[in-house]
């Protein structure tokens, strides 16, 4: 175990050295790396979770199935897989606001949200959100939750992956499912921010 | 293990900093490290629980200050050495070479259709930790339970901030791989998983808790003991 903190140049060299050995052992190829990166840069991201939310808003039976078994319901839309094998969707209401975290590492529902932003994986959010969620939401995200709304913090300690179904905003009766999906932000499905266009 | 990675409730680590925008990968080396989780899993370096435990072995000062994907480098090295699949002295030699020759190319190699097929299959399919089992559940939704105080010195998902706390089971998920065996190389030994709801005042006291807050935390069956069975269950029994 080393207590040395590496410089960016040292990390880059270490990784290149490691990659060279894994390549020679046949464990890794540049082609496999490029494919994995392509998937999580361009294919798997929060637009998928947004599509699920929009469908739940327009289809009450789908919403019932989503809340009963999120993995099964998402599979209907061809959404699922790595780090979201067993998902649970939790619903925000007038009296309950949900927010997700992984205090022990960085667990996050990749199939619907893509890879987590760095602040989600960093020590500061993981330490504070279970203890002072209102303060963290207000001071770091500019998002105020009224004291009469219960905050439920879901700590992903197991392989269950939690994410948030925000309520459909008023005045959106004329919008199509595709237009509704545009309102759904990554942060609204983590529980740290509002829908697009909503006031904080 | 009681390590710094177990951060829930830790004070004094500073404010959450949220940039307006950031790329998925902040540097080319992060792109190379990310696929190592799936590819080294395939090559038998670790399971998911062992992968996490390798990260838990990082020097605490490095853990808190290093970029996220550097944690992954550490666990690949840790398990590579542990399994005899990686020669760390050779890794050090090559690191020095690439430090002095940062633009030197990677070894020439052929594409491997099997690795590409593996990536394209594992991303949409995943690898569920859920297991078929006829093992009876010791607890039910509605039960009031206490998390045991036991402090394992090796891998566990029993975070410090919930040990000894009393809460109510709100969800029962079925049977999953048990991290306290799997993460320590002792097999899957699947156990029931439940979500327990804790009032914030139970965790932080009335002085430390914010108003109207609760924390939902997943526990495996051996983590908890019964305080009071659900009323409904008792009536039907």
Automatic annotation (TrEMBL), chain A:
It is an enzyme of class 4 (lyase). One of its GO terms (molecular function) is nitrile hydratase activity. Its EC number is 4.2.1.84. It catalyses: an aliphatic primary amide = an aliphatic nitrile + H2O. It comes from the Bacteria. Keywords: Iron, Lyase, Metal-binding. Belongs to the nitrile hydratase subunit alpha family. InterPro entries: CN_Hdrase_a/SCN_Hdrase_g_sf, CN_Hdrtase_a/SCN_Hdrlase_g, CN_Hdrtase_asu/SCN_Hdrlase_gsu, Nitrile_hydratase_asu. This is nitrile hydratase. Residues 10-193 form the Nitrile hydratase alpha/Thiocyanate hydrolase gamma domain. NCBIfam families: nitrile_alph (TIGR01323).
UniProtKB/TrEMBL annotation, chain B:
Its EC number is 4.2.1.84. Keywords: Lyase. Residues 1-111 form the Nitrile hydratase beta subunit-like N-terminal domain. It is an enzyme of class 4 (lyase). Residues 128-225 form the Nitrile hydratase beta subunit domain. It catalyses: an aliphatic primary amide = an aliphatic nitrile + H2O. GO terms for molecular function: nitrile hydratase activity; transition metal ion binding. It comes from the Bacteria. The keyword Lyase applies. NHase catalyzes the hydration of various nitrile compounds to the corresponding amides. Belongs to the nitrile hydratase subunit beta family. This is Nitrile hydratase subunit beta. It comes from Nakamurella flava.
